[in-house]
Specification:
Layout lengths: L6 E7 L4 H14 L4 E7 L2 H22 L1 E4 L9 H9 L3 E7 L13 E7 L10 E3 L3 E3 L6 H18 L3 E5 L7 H13 L7 E5 H10 L6 E4 L1 H14 L7 E7 L5 E8 L16 H13 L3 H16 L13 H12 L1
Parallel strand pairs: 1-2, 1-3, 3-12, 5-10, 8-9, 8-10
Antiparallel strand pairs: 4-5, 4-11, 6-7, 11-12
Length: 338
């Protein structure tokens, strides 16, 4: 997606450390050589308790206007805000890049440079199920052709762009109807990309091989729950779940990205909220992904590299063993960008 300036971004404010993450993103945005306008939407728990429908209507209006959004962590009390937004915007693909950061201590050897592409709907998450009698429960697992196709297309286009192969991963030998449908779609998409290598792997085997040989995987596409597991596992491999950023996408009938939302993968961290202690790295990486998406690829890459450089130099927040507060870390990133 390309855009003309000024860049307009819907901004979905949440709970806990949300305001501090937003402040960090704004500090970086103010230092960029482009004109950016943020359209604020209140998705805090306080607002949702009194006017949930109004808050989501505001989010939808802003998203339809801007077509891109930054979202910050939100508390789930009844309905999950992430699920509500996913349903409203028809998000079918989640992309989470995870890469080793020099200077961050890990428990594994090797270098991770992985793109997890996950179907955002279906799987075991679609149906909460129901109890049957006192000792049984049942739910339906759903795999659909359309989101499988969209996730596979996204994965192969990404792999083609970065010069990588694609691994589709599921339990197709056990889930012979559901996961085999996903693999069937992925294999069909692979035929459209003759220059991109493709192989299918059983998901449990992939987890083991990824830990033993992280360099062996660059782009992995999976059904919903597998991608959720893999995303957090990969973040654990690089040292912290709080170092992950995600993008959610919906598509038009021609397969072009229609709407995109970017967010840090971590939670609201109520224990440190308001204390200036949170690590804004994931929010800044989410913002760098947004910049890349709207055609500001150079600025996006520059921001991504600046965050990694500051962390690698040892100028980190407390969660990574450093002494900087949120504002000081953000200032260091801005300074690194020049």
């Amino acid at each position: 997606m390309s855009t003309s300036l000024p860049l307009e971004i819907a901004e979905f404010h949440g709970d806990g450390i949300s305001s501090e993450l937003s402040a960090a993103v704004h500090a970086v945005a103010d230092a960029l050589p482009i004109d950016i306008t943020f359209h604020d939407v209140d998705l805090t728990l306080e607002r949702r308790r009194t006017d949930a429908e109004g808050s989501y209507n505001d989010a939808e209006k802003a998203m339809r206007k801007c077509r891109v959004a930054m979202k910050y962590p939100t508390v789930t009390e009844d309905a999950s805000p992430n699920k509500v937004l996913r349903d409203r915007f028809d998000f079918s693909v989640i992309h989470r890049p995870v890469a080793t950061i020099p200077g961050v201590e890990t428990r594994i050897r090797g270098t991770v440079d992985l793109h997890v592409v996950r179907i955002a709907t279906g799987g075991t998450y679609e149906d909460p199920g129901r109890r049957i009698g006192a000792d049984s429960a049942i739910s339906i697992r759903l795999i659909e052709r359309r989101p499988s196709f969209q996730a596979s297309m996204f994965a192969f286009k990404l792999a083609e762009r970065i010069g990588a192969n694609v691994t589709s991963a599921s339990k197709y030998t056990i889930q012979r109807n559901t996961d085999s449908l996903f693999e069937e779609v992925a294999a069909g998409v692979a035929q459209k990309f003759p220059n991109v290598g493709h192989e299918s792997e059983l998901f449990d085997a992939l987890l083991a091989k990824l830990i033993m040989n992280p360099e062996g995987y660059r782009v992995v596409v999976t059904p919903n729950e597998y991608g959720d597991f893999l995303s957090d596992a990969a973040c654990g491999m690089i040292g912290s779940i709080g170092l992950g950023a995600s993008a959610s996408y919906s598509f038009d009938n021609d397969g072009n990205i229609l709407l995109a939302m970017f967010d840090p993968a971590g939670g609201t961290a109520p224990d440190i909220a308001g204390k200036g202690l949170c690590n804004p790295s994931a929010a800044l990486w989410a913002f760098s992904m947004l910049l890349d998406h709207v055609g500001q690829c150079e600025l996006g890459a520059k921001l991504d590299a600046a965050v990694r450089s500051v962390i690698s130099s040892g100028n980190t927040t407390g969660d990574l063993g450093g002494s900087l507060n949120t504002e000081q870390f953000t200032k260091a990133v801005v300074l690194e960008m020049g």
